[in-house]
Write a structure and sequence with these properties.
Length: 334
């Protein structure tokens, strides 16, 4: 009798946990390093909202902004190990994964406008780049825009020669390393979460980032001068663990794909405005002088940094660089 009731309760418990399991939502942990109040942070929130709605709660997206879960390098390892399912690292951070072609986005002056950028990210070049991730156990779901970069320091930066000898923080990209060396500066790779403190304590003298990142990390509070150089670009690839993605029920994957497409549209629609607002907020803070280059200075920056495109052909591929430049030519840029 006793054995019978024990067996019965074991059976009941397993049926119940089976039912609970059937109802448990699929969890997507989405980790990123920037503030929620940025183009990437907002697009991630939009994706969560759309994905949960479209799947009627069968999927739960947990957002971990501001490096609360992982820093730059760790998050890529965590994705490959399956500890998180989704990330949106900047395109400058794919080199350590062994897909150095993504560093084409870091080349100085490679995108004369956002129009050219979109031709690349939404065209064949973007598709081919995403394909390269598959052998790394990663699927690329979309490119999210952020913006063109400004330079910051505690002294005015008007000409490229003003950066000579300075220690400048960069993301982990060999192209950015070459870019800073072309300016005669000493580049130093640091995780994004460490930049504010490194600037504050003088570990580095300056850095580059789009205004939205500069402002939301309060870098302007420890940098007296910002120069709008627009010398290079920073954007993202949203990526998922391939095993996780391929293992999803097909209908769920479809819904998530739709949610990602809509979130991508949203990201690209708000990015420029977010950066314009951030630059205005930096000016208004009164803590930082924002300098706009004149034509002569802009020409000097271009002359100094453009050779980096040629210098990096060996790393990124001559053809890929030429193909990106062709997209600019197709739109009438020289
Ligand atoms: C940086 O490290 O400066 C950026 O990649 C941060 C980000 O994700 O925008």
């Amino acid at each position: 009798m006793k054995l019978k009731s024990l067996l019965f309760s074991l059976l009941a418990a397993s049926v119940m946990s089976g039912a609970a399991l059937a109802q448990a939502p699929i969890v997507i942990k989405f980790s990123h390093v920037v503030a929620s109040d940025t183009p990437k942070g907002k697009a991630a929130e939009r994706f969560k909202e759309l994905a949960e709605k479209a799947t009627k709660g069968r999927v739960k997206v947990e957002l971990y902004p501001n490096s609360t879960l992982y820093k730059d390098k760790e998050e890529l390892e965590a994705l490959q190990l399956g500890a998180v399912q989704m990330l949106a690292p900047s395109l400058a951070k794919f080199g350590p994964l062994g897909v150095k072609e993504f560093e084409v986005f870091d080349l100085p002056y490679i995108f004369p406008s956002k129009e050219v950028l979109y031709r690349v990210t939404e065209g064949q070049i973007g598709k081919d780049l995403m394909k390269k991730l598959e052998s790394k156990g990663i699927v690329g779901l979309g490119f999210w825009d952020n913006g063109f970069k400004v330079m910051s320091a505690n002294k005015p930066l008007h000409l490229p020669t003003d950066l000579k000898g300075m220690k400048l923080r960069i993301q982990s990209s060999k192209v950015l390393d070459a870019q800073m060396r072309a300016l005669g500066a000493n580049p130093q790779v640091l995780a994004f979460s460490e930049v504010y403190q490194a600037l504050q304590t003088g570990v580095v003298d300056g850095t580059e980032n789009p205004p939205s990142n500069l402002y939301t990390q309060k870098m302007h509070e420890v940098q007296k001068h910002v120069t709008v150089t627009n010398h290079g670009y920073l954007g993202y690839a949203v990526i998922v663990n391939k095993k996780f993605w391929d293992g999803l029920p097909a209908d769920i994957r479809n819904e998530l794909d739709g949610a990602m497409k809509a979130a991508t549209k949203y990201a690209n629609a708000i990015a420029q405005q977010e950066n314009d607002n951030a630059l205005e907020a930096v000016k208004k803070s009164g803590k930082t002088t924002v300098y706009m280059l004149n034509d002569k200075e802009r020409a000097e920056w271009r002359k100094t940094l453009l050779p980096v495109q040629k210098e990096m052909e060996g790393r990124i591929g001559k053809e890929l660089i030429a193909n990106v430049n062709k997209e600019a030519l197709a739109l009438g840029y020289k």
